[in-house]
Amino acid sequence: MGPNGAGKSTLFGLCAGLLRPDSGRVTLGARVLADSRGTWVPPHRRGVALLAQEPLLFPHLSVLENVAFAPRAAGASRAAARTAAERWLAEVGADELAGRRPAQLSGGQAQRVAIARALAAEPQVLLLDEPFAALDVAAAPALRRLLRRVLEGRTAMVVTHEPLDAHLLADRVVVLEGGRVAEAGPTVQLLERPRSRFAAGLAGLNFLRGRTTAPGRLAVDGLGEVSGTLPEAGAVPVDEVRADRVPPVAVPAAGEDGIAVFRPADLSVFPAADVPHGSPRNAWRAVVRELEPRGAQVRLHCDASGHLLVADLTPAAAAELDLVPGRAVVLVAKAAAVSVYTA
Prior knowledge:
Pfam families: ABC_tran (PF00005), TOBE (PF03459). GO terms for molecular function: ATP binding. InterPro entries: AAA+_ATPase, ABC_SmlMolc_Importer, ABC_transporter-like_ATP-bd, ABC_transporter-like_CS, Mo/tungstate-bd_C_term_dom, Mop_domain, P-loop_NTPase, Transp-assoc_OB_typ1. This is ABC transporter ATP-binding protein. This protein is of the alpha+beta class and about 350 residues long. The protein has two domains: about 10-170, Rossmann fold; about 205-340, CATH 2.40.50.100. Helices cover about 25% and strands about 30% of the residues. It has nine helices and 17 strands. The chain has helices at about 10-15, 65-75, 80-90, 105-120, 140-150, 165-170, 185-190, 195-200, 315-320, and strands at about 25-30, 30-35, 50, 125-130, 155-160, 170-175, 180-185, 205-215, 215-220, 225, 255-260, 265-270, 280-295, 295-305, 305-315, 330-335, 340. Strands 10-9-8-11-17 form a five-stranded antiparallel sheet. Strands 12-16-13-14-15 form a five-stranded antiparallel sheet. A hairpin with a 2-residue loop joins strand 8 (about 205-215) and strand 9. Mean pLDDT is about 90; it is low at about 235-245.
């Protein structure tokens, strides 16, 4: 996962053999597939299948012949390839489409056939580059359920912009930014304790970076000291982390790089003249930049001394506060709602 231009498709091109690395190397298990010293295994000998955003089915072949092409290219007999194609078409729920040509398929049907063709090659690794991008909203959920089922027990890498894909499909998430790995780890860890702004956005959290001054306190440029709490440490040893468990939290020492995250629902909005006092809380002056309807709520995008913060409130509250772009406000987050941890 990562923003546009982060290098996700380039990474897949290196894995699939569409690009040669200028440095470093590409390995699959103990095999070196490519390196900067001249080692090069051609794409068709890598055991890697790449499924692009578009199905790219052969237009002159039937659905059955498209899927049978993969085992035939690997040396299987015509009968064996046909048997394999029929099995994979049934696996993806497209066996009734066997006699059709690609031009007679819907977008969702064509993508199912493309998945069957990729799996019929029996790859060691399956690369899926935004497999739902070309589908309409109605077809994507069914295909997502299909992938969750057929990828069970297989090794796959998926490029996606959709947090739901990470929740449903991934054991591990890697976030790329500017051609480098910004963070990586078990899915639940990245979504609950993000260490990059992109991952925080996926998790729907506000994100601030600064330097710790004490446990639960973070100095942020322009905002001063942010007060929060440490996430519960848990009891899972770091060397026993599973994909569905979050490792313990290290208590940040003063002077370390730190992060504070909190939900938009935990950010309250007040008129600029009011600065609430009372229980431990954070209060920041900000300017409204944008209002975005989100179902039964309004999402408020604000600039707080150069930091983008978002708050969720009801349409009635937005109207009562007369919120419009350019309006000065005070944003308040209770310390108990803010998690502070090391970066």
